[in-house]
Amino acid sequence: MVIEGIAAGHLSITQRRKLGAAFVPEERLGHGTAPRMKLSENALLTGHAASGMVHHGFIDTAATLNTVDRATETFDVRKAKRDPEAASLSGGNLQKFIVGREILRNPAVLVVSQPTWGVDAGAAAVIRQALLDLATAGAAVLVTSQDLDELAEIADRIAVMFHGRLSAPLATSEASREKLGLLMGGSSLEPKEAAHAVGA
Amino acid sequence: MQLVLEKRAERSGTIALVSPLIAIGLTILTMVILFAILGKNPLLALHAYFIAPLTDGYSLQEIAVKATPLVMIAIGLSLCYLANAWNIGAEGQFLIGAVAGSWIAVRTQGTDAGAWVLPAMLVLAAAAGALYALIPAICKVKFGASEILTSLMLVYVADLFLDYLVRGPWRDPHGFNFPTTAEFDPVATVPLLIEGGRLHLGSIIALLVVAAAAILLARTIKGFEIRVVGAAPRAARFGGFNANQLVILTFAVSGALAGLAGIIEVAGPVGHLQPGISPGYGFTAIIVAFLGRLNPLGILIAGLFLALTFIGGEQAQIAMKIPLDVTKVFQGILLFYVLACDSLILYRFKLVFPNRQVTRGAG
After folding, report:
1. What is the band of A187 on the pLDDT scale with cuts at 50, 70, 90?
2. Is there a domain that residue B20 lies in?
3. Beta-carbon neighbour count of residue B201 at 10 Å?
4. Which residue among A139, A165, B103, B268 sits deepest, i.e. has the most Cβ atoms within 10 Å of its Cβ?
5. Which residue has the higher pLDDT, B51 or B350?
6. Looking at chain A, which residue has its C-alpha nearest residue B229?
7. Do A48 and B239 touch (CB under 8 A)?
8. Looking at CA atoms only, how far is residue A34 from chain B in angstroms?
9. Which residues of A touch B360 (CB under 8 A)?
């Protein structure tokens, strides 16, 4: 694994973050956030490494709150007060906060797992647009999703994972439902075989 | 049909503060029944326990003196418990700290060693307590040994080691064969705050420890790590925090504080090393930590309250011939109610009927 030309495979999570790696896990409560902690503390969870939130070991509360405010504004996070507990937000709003928290760090590489899983349509559109904007700005964005429509909408290239093996990536324009379906069934899309399968 | 504990979705802040008060109320109610069974007048007994010690200056000072080790140890334990590391062996770390610090006092006895003696004793005691606490911490991290068992068992090792020293090599030659060291020299003694009183410098140190812990937990990234590792372990790993490292750190800090409390007790109120220097401070501090909600300020208040039960127990024994062990019963019942109230606040009982169970999570 290489981030910005630096081998990152042996680095710690914090060191990888400093190089510009960011990750949005699939599970919002308990993995992506500490449910019983405030949003500002959850901003600190992934922001402590690089974002100027910690000075000589002391937390800069203004900086953590600032991240909450910026995420709220940019991604339209709806919440009852300025800095509530993560668990008090609805799933969609918490997901917008988590994605926003990572994007505001300006990552070079963003890995997102199930970005809009269980999220309402409005929030999902906001999140997808944010991922597209980040990619346009030059970041590498890797999305893992079970939602083929979503992938067709936002991906440049699609690869299929089957039994731990990743297929060669297809350009989204070439990735028809049939081809993706075959790959998901374990076919390796050998030209002849694929033609046969598609023909059938 | 099955009775299960289900986590409550909402959690109110006020009830979390009220819970220890409910526990204290229930404990006092239980004690009233216990006093009645013992054939004592419950009202007089409660007066002796909780009111009488607050009415004269000497016992007020004595409460602060007893609260000093309780608060220092409980602050350390609260850091462990917040990080999901279960140090039950503070009593042993307290004794080892007392022994290590006393070593300097015994070796410099009768020499013209200067003012460096007491600071050196404090530092060595804290270091020894930390190292002793690292044994269960490292066994947990390296071999997965339960720190609850190993830290508890090491209490008895420390207890017997102290016993051996004061009966053998360190026994006061002029002490009529009593198992104790000679009285420490003035340079090896914790200074009193008020001449002729009981309050000593240790109480100031305990207050500083409370303030430091409050700042650590609320304002620093280390404090945040400790809280998040305990509250949401997977989120903590995602955040890049190493739970094992925090087990080592919190055990070391709590061991150091217990060791420091040990030498302050020996070089302060006791004045020499002997068996029975602790009436179970290390165990009572567990109750203090939970009654204080693992919060530094709460621990200060809870420490004073449990110190009151020690002093009140002595008063009740003198005034009403109530056995001193009743104090331990009181403390045990109190811990029971504190944990019970907490469980009922965070969880609720629910009856589950297997034939009517609904499967969830189809999506």
Report:
1. confident
2. no
3. 18
4. B268
5. B51
6. A34
7. yes
8. 5
9. none
What is the value of pTM for the model shown? 0.88
Distance CA B219, CA B212 (A): 10
In chain B, what percentage of residues exceed pLDDT 90? 65
**Would you state the pLDDT for residue A196?**
44
- Give the pLDDT band of residue B12 (cuts 50, 70, 90): low
**Residues B94 and B232 sit within 8 Å (Cβ to Cβ):** no
Q: Decide which of B363 and A80 is more confident.
A: A80
Instruction: Rounding to the nearest 10 degrees, give the CA dihedral for residues A144, A148, A149, A154.
Output: 40
Does the residue B17 lie in any domain?
no
Ordered alpha helix ranges (H), chain B? 13-37, 42-46, 57-82, 90-107, 117-143, 147-167, 201-219, 221-231, 233-238, 243-265, 281-291, 296-320, 325-346
Q: Does the pLDDT value for residue A177 go beyond 90?
A: no
> Which residues in chain A are closer than 8 Å to B222, comparing Cβ atoms?
57
DSSP state at residue B183:
P
CB–CB of B238 and A32 under 8 A? yes
Mean pLDDT of chain B: 90
Number of domains in chain B: 1
| Chain-chain contact of A30 with B227 (C-beta, under 8 angstroms) | no
Domain span at residue B165?
69-298
The partner residues of B352 in beta bridges, in order of sequence, read: B2
Q: What is the CA radius of gyration of chain B?
A: 22
A12 CB near a chain B CB, below 8 Å? yes
Q: Which residue is it, tokens 């699609």?
A: A158
| pLDDT winner (highest mean) among A17-31, B143-157, B327-341 | B143-157
Q: CB contact, 8 Å: A52 with chain B?
A: no
Evaluate whether A39 touches A84 at the Cβ level (below 8 Å). yes
d(CA B172, CA B272): 10
The nearest alpha carbon in chain B to A16 belongs to: B240
Residues of chain A with C-beta less than 8 angstroms from the C-beta of B221? 44, 48, 54, 57-59
What are the residue boundaries of the structural domains of chain A, listed by start?
11-155, 162-200
Structure tokens at B120: 């050196």
Asked, for residue B303, whether it belongs to a domain, the answer is no
Q: Reply yes or no on whether the pLDDT at B31 is more than 50.
A: yes
Domain A11-155 has CATH 3.40.50.300: yes
Average pLDDT (B142-169) is 95
A59 contact residues in B (CB cutoff 8 A): 219-221, 224
* Chain B residues touching A41 at Cβ < 8 A: 224, 228
Complex prediction ipTM: 0.87
Residue A125 has pLDDT above 70, yes or no: yes
Quote the minimal CA–CA distance from A192 to chain B in Å: 37
